[in-house]
Amino acid sequence: MQAAKDTSDGELIRRCLEGDHQSFRQLYRKYQQSVRNILYPLCGADLLDDLVQEVFVRAWKGLPRFRGSARFSTWLYRICWNVAADQRRRCARQRSQTQNLALKSDVAEPGPDLMQLHYQQALQRGMAQLSPEHSIVLILHDLEDLPQKEIAQILGIPVGTVKSRLFHARAIIRQHLLQEGITP
Amino acid sequence: MSKHPNPSADERLRHFFRQHRPLPPPAASGLEEQILRVVATHPPHDRARRSWRWVGFSLLAGALLGWIGYQRWQLQVAAQETEALESFLVSTWGSLLSRESTEAETWWIEFDPEGS
Fold first, then answer.
1. Residue-range definition of the domain harbouring residue B84
2. What is the 3-state secondary structure (H, E, C) of A8-25?
3. Closest-approach residue (CA) in chain A for B5
4. Does B78 score more than 50 pLDDT?
5. Are A176 and B17 spatial neighbours (Cβ–Cβ below 8 Å)?
6. Rounded-to-integer distance, Cα A53 and Cα A87, Å
7. Cα–Cα distance between B105 and A61 in angstroms, integer?
8. Binary contact (B4, A167; C-beta < 8 A)
9. Which domains does chain A have, with CATH numbers?
10. How far apart are CA B70 and CA B75, in angstroms?
11. A21, A35, A54, A126: which could form a disulfide with A173 (CB 3.0–4.6 Å)?
12. CB spacing of A25 vs B36 below 8 angstroms
């Protein structure tokens, strides 16, 4: 079992290309949480499972085109961003509605104490003020802990633009939190 | 204006994000199996593309073989026609020559200047 876990992405991809679905299952298990973490702040909870499925099906279909020049995760997160962008275009008119629903569903969830809930909601409201281009940089850098160079590769933008977007995204969130009386 | 006026403030904000990040709801219980089922019914694109390549290659090879066959057939027909034409010319020319030579040899027999 441990050996299966330690199998490299390259080896799993090679097996996938030979039609081994179980290797793709391993890739799914390895990356599904990160994919969910990225898609959720961008698209909300309503269609999250559908979008995750779309990401992995696109990845499966596109595996033969994966050249291995970048890391598999970089390539997968790029698909994530494309799927999220497509979804946002589809739901452009219902955007605010979706975000409200997402917030409501979170409020209903049982879990942490009230302070934690307050901070989470404040952060979600702050992120809702960001453009998708700024949100994704913040998510990938500050939440998924990816280096700026990799984020630049994922989004197909210069590293300088990543830095600039990160700076502005943080400034907007910081401002929002201050308005809500929170000093991080 | 510096882009990072206070790195520790950024670090604090980052820490805050991680502590209070919006957590996605857990995946539906059957999602993994559903994705694997979909994947099982969809071959990776390249394989499909490869099969289309084979179809294209077969069509091209068929067309090429057809064209070569047609050319060879045309050459054969042309050779047959040439042969037939040659033999026709030979026979026609031969009979023409033989008639002319007969005439040349016998004109004086038929010619009678005195009318006898």
1. 70-108
2. CHHHHHHHHHCCCHHHHH
3. A167
4. yes
5. no
6. 13
7. 93
8. yes
9. 1-94 (1.10.1740.10), 110-184 (1.10.10.10)
10. 9
11. A126
12. yes
- The ipTM, to two decimals, is 0.77
Interchain contact, A56 vs B21, CB within 8 Å = no
Q: What is the pLDDT of residue A4?
A: 47
Say how far apart CA A92 and CA A85 lie, in whole Å. Answer: 10
In a domain, B102, yes or no: yes
Any idea how long chain A is? 184
Size of interface A-B (CB pairs under 8 A): 106
Decide: pTM greater than 0.90: no
What is the count of structural domains for chain B? 1
B25 near A105, Cβ under 8 Å? Answer: yes
**Which pLDDT score, from 0 to 100, does residue A7 have?**
75
Domain-located, residue B44: no
Residue B87 within any structural domain of the chain: yes
Q: What is the DSSP letter of A109?
A: S
pLDDT classification of B2: cutoffs 50, 70, 90: very low
In a domain, B86, yes or no: yes
User: Scanning every residue of chain A, which has its alpha carbon at the shortest distance from the alpha carbon of B34?
Assistant: A53
Is the pLDDT at A177 greater than 60, yes or no?
A: yes
> Distance (Å) from the C-alpha of residue B57 to the closest C-alpha of chain A?
20
- Contacts with B21 (C-beta within 8 Å, 6 or more apart), sequence order: A37, A120, A123, A143
**CB A73, CB A87: distance < 8 Å:** no
Identify the weakest region by mean pLDDT among A11-25, A48-62, A82-96, B24-38. Answer: A82-96
List Cα–Cα distances, A80 to A17, A62, A144, B26, in angstroms. 21, 13, 13, 18
